[in-house]
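Q: I have 282 residues here and want to know how they pack in 3D. Can you give me a structure?
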Amino acid sequence: MQCTTSISKMIEWQQAMKTSQQTIGFVPTMGFLHEGHAALIKEAKKNNDCVAVSIFVNPTQFGPGEDFEAYPRNLDADVRLVSQAGADIVFCPEAEEMYPTDGGIRIVPGPLADRLCGASRPGHFDGVLKVVLKLVNIVQPDTVYFGMKDAQQLAIIETFFQDYNCPAAIVRVPTVRELDGLAKSSRNVNLSDEERNEAPAIYEALQQAEVLVREGIAIEVVTQFVEETLRKKTSGAVDYVSILTYPQLELPNEISQDLIVACAVQFSKARLIDNIIFKREG
């Protein structure tokens, strides 16, 4: 497996792959990788001739007071995991390589970013779209792979690709979970022992919400139930609980079928998000 920190070297690699008519699958990450990332890489490898992975903690998607400096990093372990999962090249640029200049042009994600995580993290998805566009322009993949744990991010990126005719296809990969149901996340390492024991209650509450919605219980009642459950069963602060249509992220009506129940819980040193996407009937 090749490794590079250089945009020009990354472009040379993808041009060589294109010249030899190889398809490229791409997995963008922020590092501190786990089995969820490995699943993305393996899915990409299964469906493409070659796979590129990026490891870049993107400063433009962190707001003031957020955990950019504290975000966990372990590049040596990440490179081992990427190699073992079957990637062909890993791109690990520094911030100065990705953002040597700033011409002041911004990408505004619109109303999809005004709810869920975006409501409490203004500007976050501006930074996400900025780095995704740069990475996709550098790698020029045929297919890009995203995990469904970051469901709002996925909906925004899918809409962005569609509205701006991005030629790469997006593949959704299901969330990978621990045995107790906790969604695998790079931030889980920042949980205390007590918080780690509490955290599976997040997915349990979401599962209960899905059952209640399918039984016809009012959305508002189910939302309140999940909030109360999380407050009782965890020591974290509930940032939000929302039930919306997916991927439109709009308030559902009585005939809406494709739904997401999502939440975020802020523990002492880690903010955990999770969701379930489901059909109201079926």
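Q: Anything worth noting?
A: The chain is about 40% helix and 20% strand. The mean pLDDT is 96.
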